[in-house]
Amino acid sequence: MRKLVRMAKPGDQEFDVIVLGGGPAGSVFAWLAARDGRRVALVDPCRVVPRTEGLSPRLRDWMQRTGLYDPQAIGAVEARRTSDWNGNATAINSELIVDRAALDHHLRDMARRAGATLIRDSGAPGPGQVQLAGQKVMHGRFIIDARGRRAGQGTRRSHRGPATIAIGAGVQLETGQGAGTWVIPLDQGWLWLARRDDGSGWVQLVLDAADPMGQSPDQRLRSGLEAAAERLPVIHSVHQDLLVRDATPVLGAPSDDLGVMAIGDAASAMDPLSGHGLFWAVSSALTATAVRRTLEQREDAETVAMARRFLRQRHEDVYPRQARLGRDFIRSQTARLHLPFWQRRAAFPDDIPIASDRITSSLARRIIVENGLLTAAEVVLTPHAPAGVAWVGTQKAADLFRAASAGRDR
């Protein structure tokens, strides 16, 4: 007989789900849980922190399919991307730039409209409960930690990369030149500039957290802009209010407590080189949603063990692979690998290659998500995907592998 998770009733002082952190990962998780009819508390201070970020095509496509995408609400603009990576100047790609504060507000509002209770506060997670900053204690079956990089700082086994900061500021450029973005590597770090159609823009400089010269953030940003000036459009002014935030890459450690699940940057924080960070944050919310739904249906020992194995796969296979992809992109900046900033990041998280020459294409069983729930299924292991491929589009990779193998055997 299946053991079903008891859901809170309207009169209870409990929630089925409490989400700490209202960024993209936390808000998407709360939105999905509320749409499933669960009593959801989304806890976030709702501070407005203006900045511009890139949104990957994969995340935009998913948001369009699910009805979350509203370009006006999130200030989305398609921009041509110019990159000068390792001396190879290209201007053939484009990226979507969004107003991050507007994106966060929009996703929190969508969760609220779906039925989640938005609580403007902050707190700390614990088994089955959340302690709010105002001392109130809330109880819930599932506690979701989506507080970002700071959530994992007390985790002893977290693997933190070189201490990194991102210094951002609003800028004003020439009008009438169209929307665009620029990625510029520098000796001391790298710079990203985004320009909207009206000439307003945002600059972000990623650097070592410690500056051996003892410069202020303002001085460091101006030094970076001066070093990149010949490769950037003319910047007429830089706003005085700087945003300095932690950008240290972090690989969190898996927890055996399924009642407190870390998602987004609390689980794994990528180097903020592109919009892939947002994509993987939302991806972690989707995988945690599959865990929640599965445990709601049945909570026997076998299912609990399967859920733990699934989350362990993410921490041991998926997240490190993403970090290694970023590492290899850093290593492609060969002209600067002798410099301290680049040298340190070329070593994180390890020296394990992306492709494994010890793996030949074969079938293996792994825990995957199918129809929104966890299940054990066959996947295809390959040198370039040693953790396994479950799907190719809408088709099972194992079925395609068998069909291809049968054709070779004839």
TrEMBL record:
<protein>
    <submittedName>
        <fullName>Pilus assembly protein CpaD</fullName>
    </submittedName>
</protein>
<dbReference type="InterPro" id="IPR036188">
    <property type="entry name" value="FAD/NAD-bd_sf"/>
</dbReference>
<dbReference type="InterPro" id="IPR050407">
    <property type="entry name" value="Geranylgeranyl_reductase"/>
</dbReference>
